[in-house]
């Protein structure tokens, strides 16, 4: 079965891991700490071994495998890199979010490499560490993709500067597995034999924990908070009880290379080790080397965005035509130049631009100026705006057009050339500026509301076109005191309506930490929230033979209008897919694939009832299989699913020749079907047993969208 190459770039998580001080100690004991390192095993003045972070990303790893649809039978945890931003607290919650960042093809015989990157934060959102996992997928190579760039760590040709012997016990994996990795290979002798080993093997990450302790002891004794980066490749299995030796070479200030060998056999079990240490740089969002264009930045919100971006290292193009609030007047260079002067006085880099965003030449010029002065464009904030408020009947064509020209057409004129630069370089952050008037309506602002919602539409499609090129497009609906709002907002609130309250969110959306695209945010007075287009489940009236009458619609208007089971769609195709599914299976549309109001399955039989409706005939071309489900427990039973010639039938009972048999408890099965237990994790944890053709079982996710 082929890897899912579409998975690259798709978000994974958040995956949460709650832990207490006892978990920290359990991990330390699992990786060999004892009385010698009391700070890791005694709750008084407890410190966390930084490699404990792996406990948070272990579940994330199974999501990577699942999303990339790798062949589970060939997976190895190949490489692991951890970059620390702040010390890991002794208890709390670790929240991990990330994505598959690349898939490499090493050839038919060597397999594929799936790279997963994630950031783990504490419950307050403070970044703790970044993880890069490389999964070696031995059975998935040869799909014609690019090979991974070679990365070899050079070991100096001299004796190690430090060498540390350790003797993991025969029972070490039994202790280590309690920190989360409960894969049978490390505990079940029969399973280990089936997988080609004499007995259960050590967890590579357990040996990695031993190495981490040794690196701390020799390079930052007693100061695990000074570990900055730990990376390595797992090269050989190790049996419990075999002695190990971690060898360390200091190669420069704050940097060492290392490896771990099996001292009994001489095999290198962990190679390519790099360890960086010292004071961890402050975890700031910076824009050094980035070039930003902000339109209409001569005052109000744009001025603050420009100053804040420059203060964090961006080179800024401050655009402003310098006209009146309604867009009239010939324009003035003063506002943009004044902001540039402020930025330069504060030590930043900026240039002024006076072009009119409402013309295509203006848009081209702004982007050209950025490219000529600073070489590129990374960030664009479409912020320029004017107002011409009038009630609708007084809304003359000129007032209508002038507002559309600056807001909507203006964004088009500047974004188009900027998008070309961003696409070429494979990076971009674009922010459009909408308004509550557009999102929710405001008397006297039909022109402005229409233009502002037009910007949301522009974002909706641009986010799709930019997806492949790491261009994120988001929209901000600010609320701030400025000349545009001086006669709209109550004057006594003006102080609390400083643009500085809006700017932090805009800067985040401009940063490379921003992974979202296509979102709309309200921001003002320190209040931040997200607005979205939500579509109700609705109802189906009429069928293939007859369309509904007006009276039918009238009778069903409450159901049609309801937002119950409302859903946010990523793009048009997803909506059309749901409409087609609803039309062919009307009952399911009203009670979508669930038997309770929270949208979750509570009954095993209900899953099998929903299965034919969830069947994807397009994915079943040429597939002839029988999946047997043996579910134990009170709610359990036996069902089988026959798929042949693009059709699917589900029956209770036992098939005499199933392609593969999936056995699980009722609670685990429900958790899996409700998306709470990833299939890969269920399998590695022994909660899901698969008999027969294991490869074919991987088709299930494609064949059914429950
Ligand atoms: P502002 O009037 O202080 O800033 C807008 C700037 O755009 C002005 O400096 C103006 O000279 C410039 N501009 C106008 N037409 C231009 C053109 N054709 N080419 C280049 N520059 C041009 O107003 P504010 O409040 O800072 O507004 C910024 C953006 O935020 C606007 O798009 C506005 O519609 C939007 N907004 C503001 C809200 C608020 O509460 N302040 C509420 C909702 C949206």
What does this protein look like?
This protein has 706 residues and is of the alpha/beta class. The strands form 3 sheets. The chain has a 10-stranded antiparallel β-sheet. It has an 8-stranded mixed β-sheet with strand order 13-12-11-14-15-16-17-18, with helices on both faces. The protein is globular. Residues 295-296, 298-302, 319-323, 325, 327, 335, 356-358, 383-386, 406, 410, 433, 435, 477-480, 482-485 line the site of 1,4-dihydronicotinamide adenine dinucleotide.
What is the fourth-level CATH superfamily of the largest domain? Hotdog Thioesterase
What class would the helix/strand composition place it in? alpha/beta
Ligands (ions, cofactors included): 1,4-dihydronicotinamide adenine dinucleotide
- CATH architecture term of the largest domain: Roll
Give the overall shape: globular
Helix content: 25-40%
The top level CATH class name of the largest domain = Alpha Beta
CATH topology of the largest domain: Thiol Ester Dehydrase, Chain A
